[in-house]
Amino acid sequence: MSNQIASLATGQIGFLGAGSIVEAMLSGILKKGLTAADRIFVTNRTNTERLEQLTAAYGVNVSTDKQAVARASDILILAIKPKDASEALQALRGAVSPHQLIISVVAGVSTSQINEWLGVDCPIIRTMPNTSSAVGLSATGLCANPFVRPEQLAVATRLFEAIGTVHEVTEDELDIITGLSGSGPAYIYYLVEAMMGAGAAAGLDREMARQLTLQTVIGAAHMLLETRAEPALLRKQVTSPGGTTQAGLEVLESYQFQKAVTAAILRATERAREMGAQYR
Fold first, then answer.
1. What is the pLDDT of residues 170-201, one digit of tens each?
2. Angle at Cα 170 formed by Cα 165 and Cα 176, nearest 5°?
3. Which CATH class is domain 184-275?
4. Model confidence over 63-94: pLDDT tens digits?
5. What CATH number should be reported for the domain whose range is 13-169?
6. Domain segments of the chain as ranges
7. Is this prediction's pTM over 0.85?
8. Which positions ≥6 away from 143 have C-beta within 8 Å?
9. Strand-by-strand arrangement of the 101-104 sheet
């Protein structure tokens, strides 16, 4: 393996883990033509059936030899569960060099902890995408440790732009992003569940309630993106005094809707920090 991080077109990319985020990244990377399938290697703990599914779907190389994959990779992407990280990364000691770029998608685990487990001071970029990466619409936070060079940061940014937008932040901010946009899709799905259920309870066909709810959410998101207006302003524009929207909002306020959402995001952020402390 070259001591320099090769371009995405010629370097080798290894994935430690084979879950949904890996599949989303594979799909995005290959659709964007960032590299060829034969330059990608995927390994996981024991699930050979899953590896076979990925090679059949994307034509990538798969292996159960984690150390071999680590040694062969210019860029090694860690996409494993936090509880498995210590054992998995310590098993790679001696297989990772100071010249390789490590990209972590492991929630709550700091770059310094990853360096410690690997036993080498190497460039590490820690990220937090979300499940919308499956449709190319992730909001990904990204931070780099002091060993990362500008060209390596650019490579990581290109990789994650293949599955959505990328925002460079500090490592402290990454836990907040975990609580906000990492967990965020679940909050939206919870709201959609409630809106669909209410539409059906009021007498609409459930499929019609679903379609109307989804288009409403899509339309509101596009209004925010395209007008760049503050959400409070758009809310006021659609709220006529004494009208139906005001009546609905008053109910939400009586249940302290905004406080509940804020508390949920802060608690998720706190949990991300707890997880990080747990694995130190």
1. 999 999 999 999 999 999 999 999 999 999 99
2. 75
3. mainly alpha
4. 999 999 999 999 999 999 988 999 999 999 99
5. 3.40.50.720
6. 13-169, 184-275
7. yes
8. 111, 125, 126, 127, 168, 169, 170, 171, 173, 174
9. 61-62, 40-43, 13-16, 75-78, 101-104, 124-128, 138-144, 164-168
